[in-house]
Amino acid sequence: MTMPERRSALIVGAGINGLCTARELVLRGWQVTVVERGPLPNPEAASWDHHRLIRSHYAGSPGLAARMPEASAAWDRLFTDLDARPYVPCGVFSLSREPGDWTDRARAAFAETGLPHRVVASEDLSTELPMVEPAGVRYALMTEDGGALLSDRIIEGLVHWLEARGVTLLANRPVTTVDAETARVETPDGPLQADHLIVAAGVGLPALAPWFRRETHARRVAVVYADPPEDVRAAWDGAPAWVDLGGEDDLWGIPPVAGHPLKLGYGLHTRPGDPESERTATPDDTAAVLAAYQERFRGAERFTPVRTVANFYLMAPHEEFVLRAEGRTLWLSADSGHGFKFGALTGQDVADALEGDPEAVAARMRGAPLSTARASG
Ligand SMILES: Cc1cc2nc3c(=O)[nH]c(=O)nc-3n(C[C@H](O)[C@H](O)[C@H](O)COP(=O)(O)OP(=O)(O)OC[C@H]3O[C@@H](n4cnc5c(N)ncnc54)[C@H](O)[C@@H]3O)c2cc1C
Hints:
Elements: E1 8-12, H1 16-27, E2 31-35, E3 52-54, H2 62-66, H3 68-82, E4 87-88, E5 92-96, H4 102-113, E6 118-121, H5 125-128, E7 139-143, E8 147-149, H6 151-164, E9 168-170, E10 177-179, E11 184-187, E12 190-193, E13 196-199, H7 210-215, E14 217-227, H8 230-233, E15 241-244, E16 251-254, E17 262-266, E18 271-272, H9 283-292, E19 304-315, E20 322-326, E21 329-333, H10 343-355, H11 358-366
Parallel strand pairs: 1-2, 1-13, 2-9, 5-15, 13-21
Antiparallel strand pairs: 3-8, 4-8, 5-7, 6-7, 10-11, 11-12, 14-17, 14-18, 14-19, 16-17, 20-21
Helix pairs in contact: 1-6, 1-10, 3-10, 10-11
Bound molecules: flavin-adenine dinucleotide (FAD).
Residues 12-18, 35-38, 42, 44-47, 52-53, 174-175, 200-202, 204, 208, 221, 223, 311-313, 333-335, 337-341, 376-377 line the site of flavin-adenine dinucleotide (FAD).
């Protein structure tokens, strides 16, 4: 009796989405090759940093919020495989300052999805969130779950897991062209081909496909790692991550966890940019991010910047996740600045799309369009 041939998949891009897709396909018996243009892991991938937020606050998209329990369960399975739990479940909060603001809408999405959350009244802020400047805050919207996925450790763990299972991982092999119909790619070291191709090349997608050139753009985002001053340091003990501090400036970040300093994000400071030439963070980036936090956290005017990082993500229309089938290829960008948290689930989604109906999977990955500007996190 002859054994049926294993189906083969070639994955372009070793960020969280390419690696999680590789893992899922290995678990389903596929023969997998991953080709990455840089080193493995690649510090220039959108997925590379100490941590990424996972949170179920989703103001304009109850559809995505509703997927969070599934996303968390997918991470749990992945962590069991890795035999490690690179995740700090510190919880997440956002602040409301005006009726109808982002946090008010996130609260409505919680009500719609029935996901666990609680509301902290303004008079309780100083005990529950002692690092917050309470002036002008109506209430805080908190979840006990969510927090910081330790992304660099997850990426490294996945690379080792895949290596140990015989997956071919080709580093420093940039794909130059893609033939979607035949699932074949060209690289400077020759062509590669498989039964199916998944292109998860992040900000490299526009160079490979006209649709991504027309419809998406790379966004530059700078985050500042900083230390709070000594007199407010204790206020940060056990603090949750945040996804919005009220107002229109889209402030998000992660408290000091896993030996890393505070991480400060500032959505309004993101802009379209060139990933090839604008990777160096500038003093202006640091100053702009720190200035945005004045009067938001206690002692913010005395935060000491430790390191500023500039990176890029791929922004799609309506900040949605994109899965497009063409010939024997799936084009994948589950990003728009908020895709890491879904990574383990995206791997399952893509494998389902390969084995079933890509249109139906693409629809469930989109959730409902986000109604408000939300740059990252
Ligand atoms: C600063 C910042 C903060 C963020 N914060 C959060 C957050 O808190 N929570 C959250 O959920 N999400 C967050 N995101 C978004 C999240 O990081 C991304 O959605 C996710 O990492 C995208 O993963 P990816 O695998 O699609 O892309 P990437 O991680 O960019 O991986 C793509 C890979 O493809 C490779 N590649 C590109 N072109 C080619 C080519 N031609 N040939 C071969 N390989 C190629 C690249 O080198 C790269 O390694 C943030 C993003 C940034 C930049």
